[in-house]
Design brief:
By secondary structure, the protein is α/β, with parallel strands linked by helices. 37% of the residues lie in helices and 16% in strands. The longest helix is centred in the middle third of the chain and has 17 residues.
Length: 346
């Protein structure tokens, strides 16, 4: 699951780009610029550019736009996109309105790459929800809890799964990538879940084995026998099922004894492992359970190496890639394969 904060570091050099070059750079997840010099012709790509800038590293981007005729409105909208992160979030529309907009383009997804630590291979992406809003898209924390409380968790999950499945089938060049989506405990426990998941995938024809489920920490698991049966059904259907955001001294330790496929280490635990022997011991203990361990929030090459040495199998984080629009994934993957990961922070 995505966390919103980002670590500050020394600003990177000035990046000068315009037109398609600028758009490609932003969409490719370069992000974290100290400065962006936008040519006014970038207005041709305004909707996508403004949306992408809203995904940039918080507090790190400064837009410098030329004062040319006709550029004023574009400049205002770009500045609004950049500064909107520091303002109170846009009002959440009514639940009825949000339910209707799910089918009308209100939801958009970003995909964060997940890589195998031993050979740097891209093996999975996590689908992260955004809600189209003005001036910038809302992050998951701004609307997902509201929808879950309103009983719309399955409706939202269905939209995420259908969009993600359709998107992945559009990227055959990246191979048989798997995608993970978040589901709350209440949905995972429903006995019809596997049949419902199959129905969501039917139109895209994405194989069930390519869809992984991340169990969110929004509600505690109280009925372990029922959860064990649910996990067995999901695994029999071919789905990976992961415990999400497992933190240092996590109270959900009993979940590690259930038949999950894997566990995702919370960014706080991953970062603590770099300075705390106790955190490193916990990572080692989790790795010895036999579960596939994914380290979230990897922010540097040394941290990558440490988590690999501690037994983690996969990793994601801003050092490798930020959450990306679908269109940016192939370009990022090509650059990563060439051995030139960009070091940004998470």
């Amino acid at each position: 699951m995505e966390r919103v904060s980002a670590e500050r570091q020394a600003p990177p050099p000035l990046v000068l780009a315009c037109n398609r070059a600028l758009l490609a750079a932003v969409l490719d997840g370069v992000g974290g610029f100290a400065h962006l010099l936008l040519h006014e012709a970038a207005r041709d790509y305004e909707p996508t550019l403004v949306d992408a800038l809203a995904e940039a590293s918080p507090g790190a981007a400064i837009a410098l736009l030329p004062r040319s005729p006709g550029a004023g409105g574009f400049e205002a909208r770009v500045r609004e996109a950049l500064e909107g992160r520091l303002l109170p979030p846009s009002p959440i529309p009514g639940m009825g309105s949000m339910a209707g907009r799910l089918a009308d383009g209100g939801l958009l997804l970003r995909y964060q790459p997940i890589l195998r630590l031993k050979d740097r291979k891209l093996v999975m992406v996590e689908a992260l929800s955004r809600w189209r809003s003005e001036p910038v898209a809302l992050g998951a924390g701004s609307f997902v809890p509201h929808m879950e409380r309103a009983g719309l968790a399955r409706l939202l999950a269905g939209a995420v799964i259908r969009i993600a499945a359709r998107d992945l089938m559009r990227l055959p060049a990246l191979g048989a990538l798997r995608v993970s989506v978040n589901l709350p405990v209440e949905e995972v426990l429903k006995p019809d879940l596997t049949a419902w998941l199959a129905a969501q995938l039917r139109r895209s024809r994405l194989p069930r084995a390519r869809l992984a489920i991340e169990l969110t920490e929004t509600s505690p698991v109280r009925d372990f026998a029922r959860m064990r049966r649910a996990l067995r059904r999901l695994r029999a259907a071919g789905h990976e099922v992961l415990i999400d955001d497992f933190a240092l001294d996590d109270r959900r330790r009993r979940l590690l004894r259930l038949p999950f496929t894997g566990v995702k280490l919370d960014k706080s635990l991953v970062h603590a492992a770099g300075r705390s022997a106790r955190a490193r011991q916990q990572v080692l203990r989790i790795a010895r359970t036999g579960l596939t361990v994914t380290a979230e929030g990897i922010s540097s090459r040394p941290l990558w190496g440490l988590l690999r040495a501690l037994g983690a199998h996969r990793g994601q984080g801003f050092w490798m890639a930020r959450p990306l629009p679908l269109a940016a994934l192939p370009a990022w993957a090509a650059r990563w394969r060439r051995g030139q990961p960009r070091q940004t922070s998470r």
